[in-house]
Amino acid sequence: MRQKGGFFYWVKIITILAVIGAGFFLSQKVLAEQNILINEIMYDLKGADDKHEWIEIYNPGSEAVDLTGWKFNDGDGATNHALNPSPENGSRGSMVIPAGGFILLAGNAETLIIDLPNYNGTIIDTVMSLSNTSAQLKLLNAQGIEIAAVSYDKNSGANGNGKTLEWDNNVFKESLAEAGTPGEVNGAATPPETPPETPPAQNDTASSTGENATPENTPNPASPVGKPLYQGGDKINFGDAVINEFVSDPADNEVEWIELYNKTNREIDLTGWRLEEGGKAKTNLSGVLGVSGSGRYKIIEKPAGNLNNAGDIIILYDSSGKIIDQIAYGDWNGGYLEDNAPTAPDPGSAARKFDGYNTYNNANDFAATLKPTKGGSNIIEVENEVSAEAKAKFDFASDIFISEILPNPAGDDAKLEFIEIYNAGRREVDLTGWSISREDDKKINLEKIATSTIIKAGEYLAFFRPRTKIVLHNDQGQIKLFQPLADKPVIIVDYKNVKEGWSYNMENYLTPLNPPLSGGSWVWSETITPGAMNVFKVANHPPEAEFNFKSPALINAPVRFDSSDTNDQDGDKLIYVWDFGDGFKNNLVNPEHTYLKAGIYKVKLAVNDGQATSTKEKSVKVVNSVDEMADVLDSRLPTGQAGLRGNDEMEGVFRNDKIIINEIFPNPEGADNGNWFWTTKATPGKENIISLAGSKSEVITKASMAVGAAGGYIETTLEKIKELDIGSLVKVKGTVAVEPGILGAQIFYIVGLPTGQAGSPGMQIYNYKKDFPVLKIGDYIEVIGELTEAQEELRIKTKDKNDIKIAERKLPPLALAAKGDEISEENIGQLITITGEITDKKSSSLYVDDGSDEIFIYIKQNTGITTKNLEPGQLVSATGILSRTQAGLRLLPRCQEDIVLINSAVELEPQVLGETALAGEWDVAERDKKLELFKYLLIMAGSVIIILAGLFIKAKRKN
Fold it and tell me: pLDDT tens, 372-381?
C-alpha cells in the first residue's frame, strides 16, 4: 500500500499550487491592464502635424503595467501598430508604466523629444497619423485584447490651435494649457465630486414628453464621473446594441415604437444614450439592457419627432455621441437607397430576420412582418412564408461568409482558383441549399460540390474551380453567397486590381465567438491560406546595399565611405553595419575610417530592414605614400583612347598633397605602348614638360590633347547622350527638374530643352562631395562632366560646382503625361505624370493603376511629402522622375504638389494634398527677392533654436 506523502504526491501538490498561483497572477495582471486609459491627444498642431503628433497613456491603478508587446491603432481601423521599446526609433524610457504614471506614444520619438524639452518621461515610438477631423483610437495588449478605445472629433476642440484633447473622466475636452499637459494631471479634468442624489426610478419605456426631449443645442448627457464608457474595460462598440424592430405606421389607437436589443453577454447602461430620427428630434434613454430573456430588449414608445411612413432614418448614439447603430428605411435617401430596410404598412413592423441579425446591410437584415413582437423574439410572417422549421435549419446569415478568394493563381488557373467560406458562429451549419455565384447569378449549390454539407463552428471550406466550375476573372469580378430559398445574397464581394499569386481576404477577421462585420474591408495578401485562417502578410523587399569610396587610400588619412545609393523599396528604417576589414566596425550611415597599415582590405556593408539583410563587398587598397598611389593609378591606365576615360577611384586622390593628374598623352607618334610619366608641370595646349622631383625636365615635342582642358568635352544633347560610351567627357544643357538634396544628397536632375517641353529626356547629375551651386527648379543650366552609370542609370559626374553654370531662369519643365503600359527603360530620368487609382499604400510608397498597368511610386523622406490623406481606391495624379533599382522602375515625386488627389464625386479642380488650390503657376523668373531673403532668415532662425535646444538638453542631462 502506497503511503501518503510520497514523491509523486508532493509533485502533484506543488503543480496544483503553481497552477493556482499562475492563475491568480494572470488574473491580477488582466485586472491591472484594464485600468489603462488614453488620457490626452495631440492631433492637430498649429503647424505641420507629421512627426509631431502624440497621445498620452495613463495608469490610474495601483499596479504597474508592462506595455511590452502592446499595439496601437491610430484610427485607420485596419492596422495595429507595434510599440517600439527603447532605444528603437529613438524611444526613451521603460515600457513599464507605474501606478499613477504616464507614457507618451509618438509618431516620431526623436522629434517629440525636441518638441517637449521640459518632459523627461517615457516616449515610445510607433506609427501614428492622426486625423484632423475625427477618429477612433485603440490600445491592445500583448494578447490582442482591446484595453482602451476612444473617439474624438474636431468639434471637441484643439483643432489647429496648439492645444490638446484631455480626458476629464467622461469625455474629451480642450486643454486649458497651450500644448497640453504631457506627463501631468490633465488641466481640463473634472475633479471628483460628491455624487448627486439618486434620481427617481424611471420606466424602461422612454417617451418624448417632459424633460426627455432634448433641445437641438443641448449637449449630450455625460456618463457618471469616474466611469468612462470606452476605457478601463467597459467598452461598447458599434453593433453591440442594435435597433431590432420598429413600427412607423401603427394601427389605430397604437403608437410608434422602437425596440433595442443587446447582442453582447454583458449589461449595457443606457444612461446618456439617445435616439435620433431624420428630423433631428432626439429621445433620451435610460435604464439597462440585460443579458438574458426579456431583459435583452428595451421598448421606446412615442419617440421624439415622427417616423415617416414612407421612409426615415433612426440613429442610436451612446453617451459620448458615438453611433452604435443606425437604420435607414423606405425612401430615405442617404446615398444608397438599395441598402434601405423595407417599410412595414399598418399593422406590421420592420424587424430583423432574427434577433440581433446584422450583416450591416439594412435591406438584407430587415423584413416587413405581419406579426410585430414588441419585447420578444422576432417572427417574420409574410404570405407564402416558409415554415419556421425550415428557416431554423438554414438561416445563419450572420455566421457564414466568404473569407478568401484566389482569382489569379501563379500556376494553373483551372486547377488552383478557389472560393473560401467560413463559419464564425457557435454551431455547425448544414449548407444544403446554400449556393455561390458570380455576377451573372448562375448559382452553384454547395451540396453538389462539397465533400460534406456540414461546416463546423470556426471551420473553413475552400471550393476549388475543378468542382465549382466557376471561372474567376483575372482582372475584376464579383462573388455572391446565397442562403437557401433566398433571392438576395447574404454577402457580395467585389474584387479588382488583381495581383497574380495573391488572394483577396476579409481583413477584419474575428473568432467564432465574435462574428465579423459582413462586407468589411478586404485586402490582397501574398500568403494564400485555403481552408485555414487568413494571413495578411505582404512579402518584404530586401534592401539593396551599395556604397562608394576613393581607392587607393593613404595610411593615416581618413577614407569616407558613402552609402547614399543604398535603397529600400519598402521605405523601412535601415540599420547599417560596416566591417572595414582591419578589425574595426561601424554603424553610421556614411562613416569615415583611417587605416594604420598598408594593404588590401575587404570592406563589407550589411544593411538590415528589420526582416532581411543585404550585403555589398568591395576592396580598398591602402598605400604608404603618394608615389605608391601614383604607381597604382599608372598601372590602371590603358593604352590608346581607353586611357581618356575617367574613373571614380582616380578623381582627386592627390589633391590633399598638391598633386593632380595634369596631363595625359593619349596618342604619341609611333607605337602607343610607350611609357607614361607623371609631371608636376601642367602644360595644357603646349609642349609637355615632364618634371619630376629631384630629376631633370624632359620636353616632349608633341602638342597635348589633354583630357579636361578647354575644348576636350563632347558637346551633345540629352537626346543623344545615350549614344556615347561610358567614361566620355560631355557638355549638355537642360532645365533643373529636381533640386539637389531632394532625391539624394549627391544628385539632382535636369530635363528638356530651353522651352521645357514635356517628354524630353532627363539625366541625373552627380557630385561625390555634394558641391553644387544654389539651384532652383526651372534654372536652365550647362553641365560638364563624365558620363558614368550607377545601378543601371546613366548620370553625369561633376568635380565641383564650377562644372555647373546657370544660363538663365525659366519656368519649371513640364511633365509628360504617360500611361502605365507605355513607361519603359527609355523613360528613365524623364519627368512623368501618371493618373490612376491607388491600389496599395505603405508608409513611403504607393501603387497606382491607370487601367493599363500598375506603377510603383516611392516617397523619399527629404521630399517632405505626407500621404496620410491617401487611401486605396482614391484617384490621384502623381508626378515625378522615373528611376530604376534592381527591383524595377519607380516614380520619385519631388514635393507635396506632385501628389494631387482627384475628387471624382463632384466637379472640382484637383487638390494638392494638404494645400489650398491657388490660381496660377510658379513664376521662377520673377521670384520675389525679399520673400526669398525672409525664407532664408526663417531657416537660419529655426536652426539656431534647434541648436540652442540641443545644448539646453545636453546641459540639463549633465546636471
Answer: 999 998 888 7
